[in-house]
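Changelog entry

Holo records now carry the ligand SMILES as an explicit input line rather than a separate metadata file. Below, a converted record for S-adenosylmethionine, shown in the new format.
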Amino acid sequence: MTGSHWFEPIADHLGSAYLRYSFTKGTRQEVDHLVHALDLRAGTRILDVGCGPGRHAHEFARREMIVHGIDISQRFVDLAAADAPAGATFERADARALSFDAEFDVVVCLCQGAFGMMTANGDDEGVLAGMARALRPGGRLALSAFNAYFVVKYFEDATFDADSGVNHERTEVRDESGTPAAVDLWTGCYTPRELRLLCRRAGLRVDTITGVEPGRYRDDPPSVETPEYLVLATRC
Ligand SMILES: C[S@@+](CC[C@H](N)C(=O)[O-])C[C@H]1O[C@@H](n2cnc3c(N)ncnc32)[C@H](O)[C@@H]1O
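Structure line, unchanged by the conversion:
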């Protein structure tokens, strides 16, 4: 069942203007890195959880992989489906209630805050369990999550709640014609230790956690200095 989410009206306002944000510009490098790190090949079945307007899903499909993207925002799903390459399909679905069962070789959940937006109300375990269930045994997960240390150190205008690990930001987003809207964003933020514990509980073996930023996915060890961590894990 697909519920509603506070991000949907924000996505409705943003529409394709989402793809103007600088953090969306590194898609090819990010996919290059994942293809290499996960040894992805033509025909690999990928689930993209929180796919947004489909930028990673499209790039995987252009490389002859079979990709299904899900997102809570119908607006983003429509954008993703509108110019989808062959091999990419999309549907509106809620990451907090995934019903896939071992259909996929790989699950990705990418981009600053995607996982954290799904978990801001404390649904971490359910969201990760749904992704793990979608993988065949031995299938791989690539998940990026906001770095809690980085947020505390560098985000001056945001409010980080130490108890929940959720960051609240009041900001402005612009639609395709440039009209601004004031919005609230809540993002769950993580330490590598928390990510390892969550993965273990979901039946996933963590292979690596690296420090990354949009368009600069690398093999650097986790630190305080990158906005995201990239977790690569395997379903046990
Ligand atoms: C920061 S965007 C990232 C989108 C895309 N992965 C990318 O890299 O551009 C976060 C996405 O997560 C989606 N999202 C948030 N909560 C969700 C949920 N509960 N279920 C499915 N998608 C969700 C939002 O609609 C949004 O498209």
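Spot-checked after migration. The chain has eight helices and ten strands. The domain at 8-147+191-235 is CATH 3.40.50.150 (Rossmann fold).
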